[in-house]
Design goal:
Distance between the termini: 36 Å
Number of domains: 1
Number of helices: 14
Length: about 425
Amino acid sequence: MDHLGDSQAGGLVIYSVTGPLPGPLFAAPGAGVPDAAPARLEEWFDPAALGRNRRYRAGGWALAVSGMATGVAWTAAVALSGSRWRPVVSRLVGGRSLPAACLFGAGLAVSGDAVRLPLAAASYGWGRGHGLVTQPVGSWLSDRGKAAALGAGLSGALAVATAATMRRSPRTWWLATWGVVSVGAVALTLAGPKLIEPLFQRTKPLDDPDLENDVRQVAATIGVPVRQVVLNDASARTTGSNAYVSGLGPTRRMVLFDTLVRDFPRDQVRFVVAHELAHVARRHILRGSLISAAASLPALAAVGGAVATLTGTRCIGSRDADLTLRRLTVATVGAGALGALAGRLGMQMSRGFEREADWEALRATDDPDAAIELHRGLITKNLGVPNPPGWVQRLWGSHPTALERIGLALRSRS
């Protein structure tokens, strides 16, 4: 799980899509939040004390840029070397189309993980060296292995579904794939807390009646009741703090990182809880899913056009593995390129949702001072940078900067 994002401002992982909706379903992310000037760095932080933080983050940004370049190079290598690996895959599956697709999808995921492993290890070591990552090497490797296996399974299944739609509808396969991807993304979001999260982390009931009562009071104020409040064993992996909501309706629960409860005062924990529950009240996952689905439809249509132009539109036979692999390769390269662009637009959408959640939390708690001290504390605890470079924020900033969030808290005082 991400350590609060590259923007270093109170992150979220939110799965529930039910709850009251204050405002139009299709409102633009951030709509209704008043404009607020970013706070001045010198008023809230000691610039001299941020030197270590900036060095740590600069290393992380360099690794992220390297990861992007590695991904582009790896994708290009897969596409350009197709004449070498396609015959091998075809022989392994006896020329059968759908098994070839499965092997292609799973192999793509596994080889991609292998290519990225050195940079992932460097990032892990960088975090360990600076004290932000606490997970032992063995546990980290175990998590990498589980994530790789899960990714291979999902990628293989998606490749098979795509190949099957290509066989049935060689001209409009992308439309069926769009439906499969959209439904699958929602299904994974809903199944994640029960099926995926337990593979990587543990939770237990919160053994603090006073804090649980605080959480339920905030939930009642926001209008999003929770059935259970639990503690996540985050300290086994990181010193970073976070919280999130999982489950649906009567199964909804509030999950607090043990580092958040341990390292932050009660009023700041209350603000984090209000922020996370505001995401539920505003139905950000549902809104984000609808926006993403709408944006991905023309993108997949463009990918479908590229596949037709480069590989034709004749029907794929049950033993036409080579053509299946050629079409899947073109689709993968096209989807990867458009996905990279969509990721940047997704960050902008996420920042808008975060502003909404902050504003709702400020209104619910009526405690801007707690919000300000929380954002300052997160910068200190997580080696954050309150004013990252603009290009970093545009590429990876899922949250507003700490100075922007403090500015919004100051705005709520007026």
